[in-house]
């Protein structure tokens, strides 16, 4: 096997990653006197801001991705290789990849970020992520698998455990996904699962800091919380999550919630590749770069986007890990590479913050622009428009537009499909009485009220309707592997 990259007299710029940064950089180098070699472990660009809609069944995954080869069709100086880069050997200007070594004259690292569990192994093992297309599809399957499983449970406690959803992290992703799940609960799930009592399903959003949407205006934070609470999401702030044990999420001052679905949207770190010298990599795995994105200690290696940080007095923790930073750095780096080739001085990066926005649900969004802020229906339209126009490819925009229109008028996201079931390692419950630990045995019903039993110490109990456990009595063990007998016959 050989990587078979054509030899050329032009300087070779190798770009690792076709995210927002890599994509923009390669586009902008279209007419530069260089050979551009793009490497990515996925053969598509992923529009991460809409991943949560894939995870909650609103959009198909192929509407938010774009095939790399199609996007650069006709770009003469462009080569793509589908591979994973595993190491940088800066001394020999070579990369190690799973398809063989690839050499470079200039290297641009645009590998993005990864989910950060802050070393918490119990959370890492239990939590679902929304970072990649496969992880979003896993979450979609898992949510609907849990509802299918809830139908088979005998006790209210077990049903609650499978129906409850806990989202950790009150940034835009956490706000958007908890809002989307609240809408599923309000509009879709009760129609699909009329046998389940939806008072048993609670959606929680837990944030360690004092506000949601930290980094946006106080109005946006407050409004997002208000919207979520209107949508029946239990929002907890100042409540760091400690661990996940025995099916419970422990957080805040000793509170806990029992939930199978724990979604972690509470942090990301950089993705520095092995081989860079220690001083070039910060603790958070972001790569230290100078004001024009050159990696500290190297003359021909650059890093852009989420994986890079320019630390200055104004940005002591680097720029925010958002798409516009990656794209603006890419645009400037494309110009700077040409300047460097022409032995001119490169320009420093200045971030032009165009504002921030987040949607909470139907007709509800918050928008902070540099000069004014607004919330509500108009903000939601702006959010829709900006996201639609930012998607790569006309086909994706058209399909997404019609899907959104359909979802809006029918209140019926149609994609609650379990195409590729997601199986978690079975969790051992105390006393090994769980269905997972003991084949199909079910634990005895715990004497608990209907909803959020574990939160009673933390919050005055809300008056809840009485529990009506409509599930069938526990079947004799020998019958438990059989299909349920008390359901109406199907045609
Ligand atoms: C759920 C979610 C929602 C978000 N919402 C918003 C939003 O609303 N607005 C906003 O501005 N930002 C949002 N962001 C952040 C935004 O997506 C990132 O800031 C942006 O993607 C960063 O671009 P990037 O080019 O640095 O990296 P990425 O876009 O992450 O791209 C990295 C690329 O590198 C590839 N790669 C990584 N390692 C390797 C390797 N070793 N070998 C080969 N290929 C590799 C990956 O496959 C990927 O294609 C969101 C992020 C997430 C996860």
UniProtKB/TrEMBL annotation:
Classification lineage: Bacteria, Pseudomonadati, Bacteroidota, Cytophagia, Cytophagales
FAD/NAD(P)-binding domain residues: 12-330
One Pfam family here: NDH2_C
Oxidoreductase recorded as keyword: yes
Source organism per UniProt: Adhaeribacter terrigena
Record keywords, A-Z: FAD, Flavoprotein, NAD, Oxidoreductase, Transit peptide
Domain External alternative NADH-ubiquinone oxidoreductase-like C-terminal, first and last residues per copy: 354-409
Enzymatic reactions: a quinone + NADH + H(+) = a quinol + NAD(+)
Family according to the record: Belongs to the NADH dehydrogenase family.
Record bears the keyword Isomerase: no
Record InterPro entries: FAD/NAD-bd_sf, FAD/NAD-binding_dom, NDH-2, NDH2-like_C
SUPFAM superfamilies per the UniProt record, alphabetical: FAD/NAD(P)-binding domain (SSF51905)
Region entry Disordered, spans: 428-491
Name this protein carries in UniProt: NADH:ubiquinone reductase (non-electrogenic)
EC category name: oxidoreductase
Record EC number: 1.6.5.9
């Amino acid at each position: 096997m050989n990587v078979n990259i054509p030899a050329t007299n032009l300087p070779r710029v190798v770009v690792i990653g076709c995210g927002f940064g890599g994509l923009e950089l390669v586009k902008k180098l279209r007419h530069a006197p260089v050979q551009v070699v793009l490497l990515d472990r996925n053969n598509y660009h992923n529009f991460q801001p809409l991943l949560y809609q894939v995870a909650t069944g609103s959009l198909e995954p192929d509407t938010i991705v774009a095939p790399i080869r199609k996007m650069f069709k006709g770009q003469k100086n462009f080569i793509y290789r589908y591979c994973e880069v595993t190491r940088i050997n800066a001394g020999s200007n070579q990369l190690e990849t799973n398809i063989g070594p690839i050499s470079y004259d200039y290297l641009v690292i645009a590998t993005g970020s990864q989910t950060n569990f802050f070393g918490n192994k119990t959370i890492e093992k239990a939590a679902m992520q929304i970072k990649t297309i496969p992880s979003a599809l896993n979450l979609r399957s898992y949510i609907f698998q849990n509802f299918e499983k809830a139908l088979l449970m005998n006790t209210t406690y077990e049903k609650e455990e499978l129906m409850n959803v806990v989202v950790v992290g009150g940034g835009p992703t956490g706000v958007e996904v908890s809002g989307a799940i609240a809408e599923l609960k309000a509009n879709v799930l009760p129609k699909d699962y009329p046998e389940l009592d939806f008072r048993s399903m609670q959606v929680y959003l837990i944030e360690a800091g004092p506000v949601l949407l930290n980094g946006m205006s106080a109005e946006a934070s407050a409004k997002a919380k208000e919207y979520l609470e209107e949508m029946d999401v239990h929002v907890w702030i100042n409540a760091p999550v400690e661990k996940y044990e025995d099916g419970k999420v422990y957080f805040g001052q000793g509170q806990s919630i029992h939930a199978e679905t724990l979604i972690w949207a509470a942090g990301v770190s950089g993705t520095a590749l092995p081989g860079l010298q220690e001083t070039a990599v910060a603790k958070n795995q972001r790569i230290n770069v100078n004001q024009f994105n050159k990696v500290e200690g190297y003359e021909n290696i650059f890093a852009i986007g989420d994986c890079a940080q320019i630390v200055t007095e104004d940005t002591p923790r680097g720029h925010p890990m958002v798409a516009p930073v990656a794209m603006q750095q890419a645009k400037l780096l494309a110009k700077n590479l040409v300047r460097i080739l022409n032995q001119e001085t490169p320009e420093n990066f200045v971030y032009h913050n165009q504002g921030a926005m987040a949607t909470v649900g139907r007709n509800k969004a918050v928008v902070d622009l540099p000069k004014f802020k607004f919330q509500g229906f108009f903000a939601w339209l702006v959010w829709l428009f900006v996201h639609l126009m930012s998607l790569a490819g006309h086909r994706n925009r058209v399909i997404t537009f019609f899907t959104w229109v359909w979802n809006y008028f029918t209140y019926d996201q149609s994609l609650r499909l379990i195409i590729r079931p997601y199986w978690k390692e079975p969790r051992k419950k105390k006393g090994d009485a769980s269905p997972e630990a003991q084949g199909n045995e079910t634990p005895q019903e715990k004497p608990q009220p209907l909803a959020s039993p574990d939160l009673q110490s933390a919050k005055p109990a809300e008056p809840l309707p009485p529990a009506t456990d409509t599930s069938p009595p526990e079947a004799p063990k020998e019958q438990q592997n059989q299909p349920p007998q008390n359901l109406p016959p199907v045609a």
